Amino acid sequence: MPNVTRIEEYKSQEIVGVLRELLHRAERHQLRGFMFAIKTGPRRHRMGFSGEYLDDPFQSLACASRMTYKCNQLISALDDEPHTSFTPL
Is the pTM of this model over 0.85? Predict the structure, then answer.
């Protein structure tokens, strides 16, 4: 089980790193809108919008469409090799 623990710790550290980067961008006023989807457990998800994405739902839909396209690319890549790392901002 130690290997599973290390993998989970790595995943948590990766998430913390992404959140810190987003926080730094927000503090520098570099974020105008924010969309998120988080997994809180097996089959448990939360999502939300803020900023300009709330003001312009068409822009939110365009972003969601791009996210769906990226997810489809990742799924297609699973046949070639597993992809587990976060795509940088």
Answer: no
* 68 to 63, 65, 73: CA distances (angstroms): 9, 5, 9
What is the distance between the alpha carbons of residues 89 and 78, in angstroms, rounded to a whole number? 21
**pLDDT per position as a tens digit, 23-60:** 999 999 999 999 999 988 898 999 999 999 999 999 99
Tell me the torsion sign for CA atoms 17, 20, 26, 27.
Answer: negative
| CB burial string 42-80: b at 16+ within 10 A, e below | eeeeeeebeeebeeeeeebeeebeeeeeeeeeeeeeeee
- What span, in angstroms and rounded, lies between the C-alpha atoms of 75 and 54? 29
